[in-house]
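Hi, here's the filled form for the chain we discussed.

Project: internal
Contact: R.S.
Residues: 269
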Amino acid sequence: MLMFQHRNKKNRKRALTVLETMMAIAIMGIVAVSLGALSSAVESGSEYTFGHAAATQQARVALLRMQNRMATATATAEFPGFVVFSETVNGWDFPDTLVVWSPLVAAANPAGPPLYRELVIYCPDPASPHEFLEIRAAQDNRSTPPLSNISTWLTELAAIKANPDVDRSVLIETLRAAEIDNAGIRRGVVRFTQRILPSPGQWAAYQAGSVAWNDLAWVQDIHGADYGLRQSMCHIELQLLADEPGTTVSSDVVIPFFGSGALYYQLPR
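And the returned structure, exactly as it came back:
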């Protein structure tokens, strides 16, 4: 009887040890899973942080370059320093091309028109819509057409964008690209909005004699007997993905950036 009781106690002790081992294994498994989840969260957070920082840096550089170009542009009454051109695709308008009159040295024709080689073009790359470009056709010595000839401007700008021999710099590598009407056409998400005071229409009306000099929409009503202050302003919207440059564009996180540039110059009476 005593021997049976002794074996039973030993068996109970052995069973308890196995149970403890199983519990320990289960706890270690839970800890391992938790550490794996924590590691994944840390990695995701790190990627987002680096991607966000990279997007911010790219946007800052692009905005500063455009703002500096616009603030120092050459302008006339007919060409207000810079112009936004909009392209229509499948019924949608895309005002995503900014053209700045920014000669490397003095303008060849200060009274206008600018030469193509004096223009700096900002736009998404048609062949790679995740890239935002700065383009200059430095060898193109032709004069540009009047701004009223929009079709010629759009044709020439498309040819310059597609020309592999022009000077181009990639300012943004992770621009958001959106598909147009499920048609398989993707376009970089950029928007330029321009405002000119006095507007070209008002200036044409003044030259035609239907609007008085003092009635033009001068900036802060700054004008004198011989000159008036004109403002050419552009609002900019860029949408970037939170991806690091040089990596595969895959993030679903979209970061919008906004800026503006302006040029002030005198119009002679």
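Let me know if anything looks off before we file it.
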